[in-house]
Amino acid sequence: MDQISLAVNGRTDIGQVREENEDSIRWYASADQPFAYIVIADGMGGYTGGATASKIAAETVQFHLEDLLKHTFLSCTPEQQQLILRATLIDAINSANNALLNTKNTNPHFAKMGTTIVVAVMWHDFLIVAHIGDSRAYLWNNFGLQRLTRDHSVVQEMIDSGQISEEQAQQSSVRNHITRALGVSNSVEAEINSWKLTENALLLLCTDGLTEYLDDHAIERVLATHRPALECVYRFIDDANRMGGRDNISAGILEYSSQPAAQILAQEQSATQRPKSPDVTIRKAQR
């Protein structure tokens, strides 16, 4: 089997204008298994409401993912594991939605709160992404940048119907109006898609505090050129703040690299066959 390496990093920032950070981010990479995830939520709902909503959602999803790598999962076939991952994400997001609704019911102060969410999970070379709202996931590799999520927003519907262009959407007065969120209704439907990665890649998850300022071309330029790759999160935050930072900004990067087993074996054989350097004796010079 190929040797897979996963590394993650994340950062959230209050920005230049807001008085509170209503974003939440969680990330993790296992030291023992090729398993990693990123969770990002962008809350809404007034003072403390948005921050509470995103924190509840991110922590609930994180709890479900942390509970995944048990003997039952590890003993399943790859096909079964993929089905379990999908079911776990659905269950996690439904649980987060219920937790938000319960909090709203017991505390009227949070009556208007809700949150977006985007989750990416890697297991070996299998990538699965779930999202609700306008927080996004992107994949970058040698073929360029691919947006993995489609915003649940008013402007995205206007783009799809041909009413406005992507450029016009950036300036629209309703660009922050989302059509789907956690904590709003009893039932919630996340959009879930999966892919099998076939080459080294970078995965970016972010809130609209970043994409408000950086379009897909700017994002691709950073992912393609900024190294170390995991430090792109700091570059993204700095760029968004430099350009105005009107909203909270969150970004998470997952670096996926795969080395073929044959290549690993060849490297090991080369190392064992390499001639040893002759012993060298170092003497102090005689005075």
From TrEMBL:
<feature type="region of interest" description="Disordered">
    <location>
        <begin position="266"/>
        <end position="287"/>
    </location>
</feature>
<dbReference type="InterPro" id="IPR036457">
    <property type="entry name" value="PPM-type-like_dom_sf"/>
</dbReference>
<dbReference type="InterPro" id="IPR001932">
    <property type="entry name" value="PPM-type_phosphatase-like_dom"/>
</dbReference>
<protein>
    <submittedName>
        <fullName>Stp1/IreP family PP2C-type Ser/Thr phosphatase</fullName>
    </submittedName>
</protein>
<dbReference type="InterPro" id="IPR015655">
    <property type="entry name" value="PP2C"/>
</dbReference>
<dbReference type="Pfam" id="PF13672">
    <property type="entry name" value="PP2C_2"/>
</dbReference>
<feature type="compositionally biased region" description="Polar residues">
    <location>
        <begin position="266"/>
        <end position="275"/>
    </location>
</feature>
<feature type="domain" description="PPM-type phosphatase">
    <location>
        <begin position="3"/>
        <end position="256"/>
    </location>
</feature>
